[in-house]
Each structure stands twice: as structure tokens, then as C-alpha cells.
Amino acid sequence: MAVEFPIFGGCFCGYVKYQISEMPSSVGICHCESCRRIAGAESVGWAVMNKDALSFTEGSTRDFRSSESVERTFCERCGTTLTYHRDGRELIDVTLATLDNPELLQPTKETWCGERVSWNQLNDNLDHFEGSSSS
Question: pTM of this prediction?
């Protein structure tokens, strides 16, 4: 499926809206404990892109430092997790499930599989990494 940009997304309550202006460099599913706990889910899908490709168009977000070098963004009203950004990196990760049409960006890999919960089955059609991948 060809994706036409921009594509749009937002939080659960509809207060925060954003747009992505270009194809992400990477799309994957993370199983790390940090992502699982911040989202309250067994894994989190992420689209990784240049920071300039993401713009918030409505609402206000709050930032949360989940570790010394990582800042996450969420809706200040409903708490939906929206982004992940590591200090010194020109890339930002956006949660796939917050896209208006999450089917537009298909994951190609699963990362931090070494930290996944045992009952969350890996997708045999995706590449798997015990820890981080290259992007």
C-alpha cells in the first residue's frame, strides 16, 4: 500500500493531534520493560522518524523523563503515550496505535525480544532482535 503524506494521529481523548510529513526510517514493535510499563501493554509499536517530520497541530502535551537520557511525551489530559526521544538523537519515535489509521505503517521488526513477556508471541513474519536494532 502506498502511503500519502502527511498522515495524522492523536491521543485517546482527541485533545492532542499530530501529523507526520514523511515516511519513517523504521517501524517496529518494542518489547522492552520500559515501553511495556509506560504504556501498560505487552509491547508497543513505534514509527521512527526525523524530529522535523512530526508536528503537533492541536492540544498540549507533557513530557516525562523515563530515564536519564529518554524523554517521553503524552497527552496532558488523558495520558496517552505519544513519543519517545533519546537525548542527542535527531530521531523521534511515535506510537503506531495513535495513528488515525494504524494500518498505514506496518512493522518490519521486533526489538528487545529478550525482555518480552512469555505469553506475547512473536510475529514470524518480522525480523527479531534480542535488544536494540540498528535504527
Answer: 0.91
pLDDT of residue 132: 86
For residue 135, the model assigns a pLDDT of 46
Whole-number Å distance between alpha carbons of 80 and 66: 15
Kindly list the domain boundaries of the chain, sorted by start residue: 7-128
Detail the DSSP E strand segments found in the chain: 7-10, 17-20, 26-30, 44-50, 54-58, 61-67, 70-75, 81-86, 91-95, 109-111, 127-128
Quick one: CA dihedral 18, 7, 29, 87, positive or negative?
negative
Q: Which among 62, 66, 100 is positioned nearest to 78, based on CA atoms?
A: 62
**Cα-based angle 102, 117, 124 (whole degrees, multiple of 5):** 60
Q: Write down the H helix ranges in 12-113.
A: 33-39
Cell of 102: 494504524
The answer to whether the CB of 76 falls within 8 A of the CB of 55 is no
Ranges of the chain with pLDDT below 50: 135
Class of domain 7-128: mainly beta
